[in-house]
Amino acid sequence: MVKLFIGNLPREATEQEIRSLFEQYGKVLECDIIKNYGFVHIEDKTAAEDAIRNLHHYKLHGVNINVEASKNKSKTSTKLHVGNISPTCTNKELRAKFEEYGPVIECDIVKDYAFVHMERAEDAVEAIRGLDNTEFQGKRMHVQLSTSRLRTAPGMGDQSGCYRWDVCGLKFRAAVVHENTHPSWYPISGTFSALCVQSPRNRGP
């Protein structure tokens, strides 16, 4: 089975319509539409390659759709939330902007905001520093760590309960903001909402 990503879907597109398009090239096991993009699970690699070759930039309801193999997110990828996106901005353009800071695993635009998954944590931090509150395509975009709930993995937590990553000499710690309080360092149990970057020379003993 091969998972395909379909981007830039027009509003009029239906699940059955997308399924029928891809069934011309092989058996479709699953088809899901999520706002302006979707995923198709097709039975084998040959069918997937045929679908990509014939349907990438295919015009559907007057819009050229994008079809490519879905890239699985790395376990160590860092997810960013990008707000206030221009309505004319495409996945390709936004991805290219973030790739100035490092490899991008996935980029999904949802209406006027987007999620960008960056391969390396230190690149994500540089992207936040360089792009947050800057103008892009006539809109001042806001870039921050995604507020999706964290999924724990062995070795991610330390004895204080905070998540830490030591990457290229930088220490990253996650903070939780509790309702009606100021941000404080707590064991991770809720929303991932802030990142503290501390250089080695500023660390305590």
Structural account:
- Keywords: Metal-binding, mRNA processing, mRNA splicing, Nucleus, Repeat, RNA-binding, Zinc, Zinc-finger.
- There is one protein chain.
- By secondary structure, this protein is α+β, with helices and mostly antiparallel strands.
- The protein has helices at residues 15-23, 45-55, 91-98, 121-131; strands at 2-7, 28-34, 37-42, 59-60, 63-64, 66-69, 78-83, 104-110, 113-118, 134-136, 139-145, 164-167, 170-175, 194-198.
- Strands 8-9-7-11-10 form a five-stranded antiparallel sheet, with helices on one face.
- A hairpin with a 2-residue loop joins strand 4 and strand 5 (63-64).
- The termini are far apart.
Quick summary:
The protein is an alpha+beta fold and 205 residues long. The protein has four helices and 14 strands.
Strand order of the largest sheet: 8-9-7-11-10
Can you tell me the overall shape? Answer: globular
* Main sheet: strands, sense, barrel: 5 strands, antiparallel
**Helix and strand sequence:** EHEEHEEEEHEEHEEEEE
Classify the beta-strand content into a percent band.
25-35%
Helix content estimate: 10-25%
Mean pLDDT score: 75
**CATH homologous superfamily of the largest domain, by name?**
RRM (RNA recognition motif) domain
Annotation field: number of helices: 4
Number of strands: 14
Report how far apart the termini are.
Answer: 51 Å
Assign the CATH class of the largest domain. Answer: Alpha Beta
Low-pLDDT stretches: 149-205
CATH architecture of the largest domain: 2-Layer Sandwich
Radius of gyration: 20 Å
Query: What is the domain total for the residues?
Result: 3
Structural category: alpha+beta
Q: Examine the coordinates and then state which fold CATH places here, giving the name of the CATH topology of the largest domain.
A: Alpha-Beta Plaits
Domain RRM: 2-72, 78-148
InterPro entries: Euk_RNA-bind_prot, Nucleotide-bd_a/b_plait_sf, RBD_domain_sf, RBM4_RRM1, RBM4_RRM2, RRM_dom
Protein name: RNA-binding protein 4 isoform X2
Keywords: Metal-binding, mRNA processing, mRNA splicing, Nucleus, Repeat, RNA-binding, Zinc, Zinc-finger
